[in-house]
Amino acid sequence: MRNIFERVKQWNTLTRIWHLYDAKWQDPFDSAKVIQKYLKGLHKPIYHPLADCGDHVVVINCKEIAMRGDEWRKRAYFHHTGYAGGGTYTLAWELHDKNPLMIMKKAVYRSMKGNLQRRYTMERLHLYAEENVPQDIIENISSVIPQLRDVPMRLDRMPEDQVKGYPKIWDLPKDYVVR
User: Fold this and answer.
1) Which end of the chain is more exposed for a tag (fewer CB within 10 A), N or C?
2) DSSP assignment of 28-95, as one string?
3) CA distance 76 to 7
């Protein structure tokens, strides 16, 4: 009977688990550091740099990522077509408008620097702009990677009694005009 349980432990260690990560309001570069650990298998006790023991990671809400400060305007991504003079730079906000998955994909790819198998490891990364994930992938998910920071609740989505319960710092005069 004991051999059966040892065998099950071994199967759980060697199988590829599917993890879910919600990227809503998360920094893509900090998130990439966490995601790459699961893709490479660094969280498993059997990890070895030459062994391919990583898991699948499904990332949802890539459309709603957040960058610090004015990185949307200042960060530029390089792309080369392969032809002479084919190099271009695209600002982060432009790239995000064209393809909302690309910034997260590039951040995860870059975070695996030095990994010789990163092209094959990236095949286990599944990115979705919103929460719409195909049913066959949802059936595989068995774990959730916790978000790095809490998502703040918007004021227009809070219950009205909770909004009224907040303390007022000052009251505007009755003759105050908003320009």
Assistant:
1) C
2) HHHHHHHHHHHHHTTTSTT--TTS----EEEEE-GGG---STTHHHH-EEEEE-SSTT-EEEEEHHHH
3) 50
**pLDDT (tens digit per residue) in 42-60:** 998 888 888 888 999 999 9
In three-state secondary structure terms, 6 is helix
> What is the total count of domains within the chain?
1
**In-domain check, residue 29:** yes
Q: Which amino acid is at 105?
A: K
What residues pair up with 144 in beta bridges, in sequence order?
Answer: 20
Whether the pLDDT of residue 111 is over 60: the answer is yes
pTM for the model stands at 0.83
Sorting pLDDT into bands at 50, 70 and 90, what band is 1? low
**In the beta sheet, which residues pair with residue 88?**
79
* Host domain of residue 40: 5-165
Cα-based angle 16, 124, 57 (whole degrees, multiple of 5): 75
Integer Cα distance of 32 and 23 in angstroms: 10
Q: What is the mean pLDDT of the chain?
A: 91
In a domain, 33, yes or no: yes
